[in-house]
Amino acid sequence: MNPLERYAPLVDDEAAFFAACERPLPSVVRVNTIKAAPERARRALEHEGIEYEPVGWHDQLLRLPEATPGTNWPYFHGWLHGQEEVSAVPALVLDPQPGERIWDSCAAPGSKTTQLSAIMDDRGVVVGNDNNLGRLSSLRHNAERLGVTNLVVTNQDGRNFSFNPFEFDEFDRAIVDAPCSCEGTVRKNPTTLEEWTLEHVHSVAAVQKGILSRAVQATKPGGTVVYSTCTFAPEENEAVVDHVLETEDCEVVGFDCPLDSVSGITEWEDDSYDSSVEQTHRIYPHLNDTGGFYCAKLEVTA
Amino acid sequence: MSDEAKNVGQQFGRLPATAADREVEGRVSREAVLEFFADRFGIDPAVFEGFSFWEKGKGKIWIFAADAPSPIRVEGLGMTVLRTRQEHWKPTQSAIQRFGGHASKNVIEIGGEAAAAFARGEDQELDWDGDWGYLIAARDVGGEREPIGVGLYVYGELRSTVPKGNQESLPPLSAE
Lengths: 302, 176
Known about the structure:
Chain A is an alpha/beta fold and 302 residues long. Chain A has helices at 14-22, 38-47, 73-76, 89-94, 111-119, 133-145, 198-217, 238-247, 285-288; strands at 28-31, 53-54, 61-63, 80-82, 101-104, 125-129, 151-154, 171-177, 219-229, 250-252, 262-263, 267-268, 271-272, 281-283, 293-300.
């Protein structure tokens, strides 16, 4: 059975949902504003005769219908970075400010991490952590290519991240783009679902709860924590947020999602979740012709 | 026994402000790094105000947008900027792409197939009247100079030092 069948009761238009999951994903790049203004990058693409379509909701995202994103001069200069449209959402929701200290708990391969640096004008500090040493090399490679200088790379288990290397002991904001069952990336990786098991969903959810808890603890009172996954499973989304609402000092805050989305759910199978998770956002592939995604914004209360 | 500590490979140490402030044997100073970029490429030291410089491993210099306690044990601290181990210091591809636009000398402008060959990592014969050694290879984008990478000019030849992981087969540059 297709594991995505379990979400049929959640979506408004089943046929459109399943059809979108079958289609390949459009190729999208983000303009790296550390090195080039969006206008300059667009002019350079035009000069090379590379077709692009602007993404309406964000001037730093461009769809490249014909091209391989990595084989053009603007990319070589580090002006562009291949990044799925929906994956640009959580960094914008986090809204980091130049000069702040930000924690990216699961940073590799670094699309969102380098986006955070760009939003901050490469000022302040982004601590990009990943527990997987092998994946850190792709994070480092991407950060170098994009000219990022405000990134500190650490290799810790996010669940018990230690401030030991640093002279500070709290972050202004944190982002947990958690390892997940990746159901929402089925358009990019059609084999994702072949490896799907409910046991894996539950085991990865336990890790997600641990990392999100640590992110709330490591963020100053009044600070923002954004939680995101590229999966539909409520066990990995609303249930994880519901868990930290109970165990940590934080609350859900609403935000305007720049893409069409639907509210987080409060009931799933035999479980029910805090009503405030309705202010979190589910993005289904058919709503905006993107991958699938989930995003929640939390404020630390103490 | 020297009173200067040894450089430790697995941690980052901040560069001393000047050679007189040096506490780690053989470590270059911030002043020397800024002088190198000013002397070799005409990059105004003011460009690097607000950045700190660090060494991890012998002669591998990094640039960081903020400050941190020194020494610090982390996997990365900002961006690699310079190699000082050999007699001739070598700026990194990432540093030149990020800061090379401020250069006023030892910049070789290339276009067309020469630029494409450079991006593929190839060596090529080219005329150059200036100094031998490390040059900034740059192109013109709409009237603005844009650095492509670092080349080593010797014996009438421009050797591309674009790292393997960044080399790319690109179309020849056409004039703007």
